[in-house]
Structure formats: C-alpha cells, structure tokens
Design goal:
The protein is mainly α and 65 residues long. The protein has one domain. The protein has four helices and no strands.
C-alpha cells in the first residue's frame, strides 16, 4: 500500500498506480493478468497502460504466433 501512495504522490491516479505496480510485479504479461492483479476492469487497464506508455513508464510489444 505504501507503493501506491508513493506513486500517487508522484502524480499518478489510484488506478494508474495500481496498474503500474501490477505491471512491475508481473513483468511482461497479458493485459488480462495485469488487470486482474490491479483489480481494474480490463478495458480500463488498456486505457491506463496507454497513458502510462505516453508518460514513458511502460512499454508494450505484441507477441506473434
């Protein structure tokens, strides 16, 4: 919980902080897993991850079959 507060102090909103922390904990993972860990709806998680990417906090890649 202290990490969430620290991230909020740096300007992230509650859900942004939760998604960012979940992404850090999981490492490269499908959005569904990040959403589940952050306890945020998957569609919202996509939007948040896009915002975090614009801020330079996360990157993404597509894994092809």
């Amino acid at each position: 919980m202290e990490f969430i507060q620290a991230l909020k102090h740096l300007g992230l909103k509650d859900k942004e902080a939760a998604v960012y922390l979940a992404a850090l904990q999981l490492g490269p993972s499908p959005v569904q897993n990040i959403a589940r860990r952050a306890n945020v709806v998957r569609a919202t998680t996509y939007v948040i991850l896009e915002d975090l990417q614009k801020k330079g906090l996360v990157t993404h890649y597509k894994e092809g079959k």
